[in-house]
Amino acid sequence: MIDKSRRGFLAGVGAAATTSLAGCAGIGSGSQTLTMIDWGYVYNDGVIEEFEDRHGVTVERQAAQGSAETLAALRAGRADYDLVPLGNYAVKPAMDEGYIQPLDIDQIPAYDDIFDFLKKPYFETDGDIYGSPRSFGQTPLAVNVDLVETEITALADLWSDSLNGVSGGRDDARLQVLYRNAAFDTPLNPSSASEIDFDALQSDLIERLEVTGGLWNNGGESESLLRNEEVGVQPVWNYVIQTMQDDGLPVERVYPSEGTKAWFIQHTIHAEAENPELAHTFIQEWHTMMGYRSLMEPNNIAVPNDQVFSEQDVTRESYGLDNPDRFIYEDPKPPELIKQYANTWSQAKTEAN
């Protein structure tokens, strides 16, 4: 469903702070509509309505399912939005296949303050930048200490017979292969099928599934599995753990010894966006005005920008960002390899007891 909202103009300090940028972009005619596809949890505290008020425009948002699904929609010609947030692994194929356009970094001064370790080389080509990191999250292990008596320190523990029936995980082939590679100390992100022993991979995934008590597809399902004690340990998004801890549940956060899976979402602009200037303005104001209130404060998901951390007087340590070397990432992969991962995961689920 498309989320449409429109409010009258509100004068104030926030509006004054963006007048010059809006003027340069030609915003404020009252006839512009910024379209985007994005996750609903990202926008809180009325930030979309305030953006509309500042610039005299309308924002229309289509609910996103996931970066893989958005990339598929781009390929099918069903994602002709101005602003298209994508996970790090999805930016390069969207860029290489011509679905997104280079960003005009001069229109995004806040880009300079984005954490350097997230400005991946695969977001660039021929000196042009196609993705601007907008949010950074982690997927540590959630451990219900009332259900799990074994000490959990690593992803490899998810294969332990001692966790039979209480281990959980996401029903996602790419992620399960990444976790397996980390747990078995094999290359994390091979770039071609020739580098992979698919028989060994499938065997390892079957072993993982045979001690698994439940699989999930979204944050709500992952939380439900833990709250209902259907599983006692699984990798989940950090904010899910925080929510359960806030409710007094006996769930602890464990950063695996092999590395914690991290994810980050980039703002990208469609190659044929109708309002690219307005999209640039939105990206800039996400960092300077909206991101902390909208996502970082309510959901404990970081806006990876030094200026945001400084202005809000929060530390990187409080968001688990004090040691970037402890993270593992899913890098872009060829579509053919992704299909092979999906087939291998599907076969493993079929053969698992």
UniProtKB/TrEMBL annotation:
Cross-referenced Gene3D superfamilies: Periplasmic binding protein-like II
Keyword check for Signal: yes
Pfam families membership: SBP_bac_8 (PF13416)
GO molecular function terms noted in the UniProt entry: polyamine binding
Predominant location category: periplasm
Domain of life: Archaea
GO biological process: one example: polyamine transport
Keyword line: Periplasm, Signal, Transport
UniProt-listed InterPro entries: SBP (IPR006059), Sperm_putr-bd (IPR001188), TAT_signal (IPR006311)
Localization, UniProt: Periplasm
One GO CC term on file: periplasmic space
UniProt protein name: ABC-type transport system periplasmic substrate-binding protein
